[in-house]
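Aim 2 progress update. The chain analyzed this quarter is reproduced below.
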Amino acid sequence: METACCYLLTPSLLQTVADSRGGPWVDASLLNLAQTCAILVALIVSVIAFRASARASRTAAALEIVNSHRQLFIEALKDPELARVFEEDAETPSQAITPKQRLFTTLLFIHIYAVYKAHKEKLLSMSPPWYTDIAQFASLPVPRAVWADVRRVQDEDFVRFVEQAIQKAKAGA
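Predicted structure tokens:
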């Protein structure tokens, strides 16, 4: 007699086992076993597909953020008026912030919020230099003045995050 361990669950094997060891009960048990194995394989394939989809979502989020970042800085490079947003010695009280500078800075804070939210939702993982960049940007005169206006309409966690970054920048300076 051939041994069952050498074969996959084929109809002829099921019939051989059923004929030799207990009839229909064994046939039903092996059928249940085959169905259970099929369900487990389907579950494993689903988990693998889910992980691949999650990885693809994280990659898409990262690419979208890079694209958004690139677009914002292309605008800053094209328009000399926006260069003042990044100046460390910009005097905000004596020289008013233009509407264009205010809008650009607000868009940068919205961009930072999107990155922050993606990080909180674990779509992105951010390295420590990212926090330093935010602290340096938010500590500049024009962004600091705009932040004082826009912070009241921001998410509390995000406000706390930016404020902590600013405090760390001041302490490190």
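Helices lie at 11-20, 24-78, 99-120, 128-139, 141-150, 156-172. The chain is about 75% helix and 0% strand. These observations will guide the mutagenesis experiments scheduled for the next reporting period.
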